Amino acid sequence: LVAGLSFAVLLGLALRLASAQGGIWTDEAWSVLYARDAGGPWGVISSINHDNNHHINSWWLQFVGADASSLAMRALSVATSTATILVAGLIGLRRGVATAIVTALLFALSPILVLYGSEARGYAPMLLCFLLMIWTVLRWTEREEAPFPSLLLALFALIGAFSHLLMLPGVAIIGLWVLILFA
Length: 183
Description:
Blueprint: H1 2-19, H2 26-37, H3 41-46, H4 55-64, H5 70-92, H6 97-109, H7 111-116, H8 123-142, H9 150-163, H10 167-182
């Protein structure tokens, strides 16, 4: 299990690092300019009124600076996308070791997930938070009489939404899933 998951994670990391090479794309450049011109962390919330504002990514871009290398600008996405591979494997582990490894490999090799994990945007951190919510609910369902992990789920939902607003439909779906579990 450990060797298989480690292989998938390292393979995914290598693909994301290779894909993150080169100059930034137009939408990434807009994000850099918006983050630079926002004037600070509060400005990301108050002054960037554009759908290109993925708040946590904008804060990351402010942290590394507008003159940083493209790899530094993309490092948050590379790291969170690589972590997502492991979380996907842990979700798959509920069905067995082989499923865990195959699930992790699929997340490592998926072209769209490699793309999301190698661009300075908010998709990769959002997806990590979404999978963490799924994993948290699954773990809760496996433990009898365990308290509902509302604070942890709320934290993942909040971080995910600040990563990208596409997290909100995912939160709604998980909410419906939990509602069905309670019914």
